[in-house]
Amino acid sequence: MRNIESVTYNGEKIILLDQTKLPLEEVYLEIDSVKDVWDAIVQLKVRGAPAIGIAAAYGVALGASQLKEDDYESFAAKYEEISAYLASSRPTAVNLFWALNRMKNTLVANKEQPVAEIKQILLNEADAIKKDDAEICKSIGEHGLTLLKDGMTLLTHCNAGGIATAKYGTALAPIYLAKEKNMDIRVFADETRPLLQGARLTTWELMQADIDVTLITDSMAAIVMQQGKVDAVIVGCDRIAANGDTANKIGTYGLAVLAQKHNIPFYVASPLSTIDMETETGADIPIEERSAEEITCGFGNQTAPNGVKVFNPAFDVTPNDLITAIITEKGIISAPYSESLKNLF
């Protein structure tokens, strides 16, 4: 597997792989301001719940390093403003808030230290968040690998691979580990409209690793299932409620319904940081709505009449009764999710 790092820090600037340029260009942005981090998250230059969390952690550490205040109270007040600003970038992916909360806890735990030392401690914590994510994703992959058999064909939606995390990804992690073991695993990748994360990102990433991938439009998932070409569906997620309801890229719910109809296992791969025990059900998950232009004028080409009304939710929620199992770094859990998720913590 080629180790493509979507978020790094070089000591002065955050380096981001601009995922809006893929698959035609592999462009890396050098970011030295909190506003640019916020813009990168909102504009999907960095995307994928874990990668957003990593970027936010580095963003808040970068912002803190640029503060002039040298007493803790003033420094902490400014830090809170930076953290709140980054938290406003995207509402659905809980990893954003998890990472910012972990960074805040680090700040508070070191309040007796000189401000100059706190700044370095915050950068160290951002590094730790990234390192932990890579290890977590590999563990998810190892557990998920137990569900795979040589010769299987999987269907995935959106992009939950290495460029959406620190390494390996979540949904794609078992596939990468299978490749390392010379297993023959084939993949159908949904195009994932309207922003084509499957077409632009997942196919590119899997082809970089020489994995057999076939691109289909979202509306073709039903026929490949009907024809018996899919052995399992595996997706990532942006938030899991305490009852197991799962928010992921728009179109995931429809896949889960189709999978149940065709008796195909439907797996969700998720780090514990994406599980939100404070959110009781999927009905409580805030769903981001994005601009109409993403649908009416995607990638600069107008495909709808002027003035047409548009509904553009970025995510949908898959009810827990459609999910065969959730793959975490601590193992694979199944229903009843209200109990099994609680036991993880």
In DSSP terms, counting alpha (H) and pi (I) runs of 4 or more, how many helices? 11
Label the CATH architecture of the largest domain: 3-Layer(aba) Sandwich
Computed structural class: alpha/beta
CA radius of gyration is 20 Å
Order of helices and strands: EEEHHHHHEHEHEHEEEHEEHEEEH
State the CATH class of the largest domain.
Alpha Beta
**What is the distance, rounded to the nearest whole angstrom, between the alpha carbons of the first and last residues?**
32 Å
Subunit structure: Homodimer.
Binding site for substrate: 47-49, 90, 197, 248-249
Keywords: Amino-acid biosynthesis, Isomerase, Methionine biosynthesis
Pathway: Amino-acid biosynthesis; L-methionine biosynthesis via salvage pathway; L-methionine from S-methyl-5-thio-alpha-D-ribose 1-phosphate: step 1/6
Characterize the structure shown.
- Strand 8 (239-241) and strand 9 form a beta hairpin.
- This protein is of the alpha/beta class and 345 residues long.
- The protein has 11 helices and 14 strands.
- The chain folds into 2 domains: 7-138, translation initiation factor eif-2b, domain 1 (Four Helix Bundle (Hemerythrin (Met), subunit A), Up-down Bundle), CATH 1.20.120; 140-344, 3-Layer(aba) Sandwich (Rossmann fold).
- Strands 6-5-4-7-10-13-14 form a 7-stranded mixed β-sheet, sandwiched between helices.
- It has helices at residues 34-42, 49-65, 72-87, 94-109, 115-145, 173-180, 197-208, 221-226, 252-261, 293-296, 337-344, and strands spanning 7-9, 14-17, 28-31, 153-156, 186-190, 213-216, 232-235, 239-241, 246-249, 266-269, 275-276, 315-318, 325-328, 331-333.
- It is globular, with a radius of gyration of 20 Å.
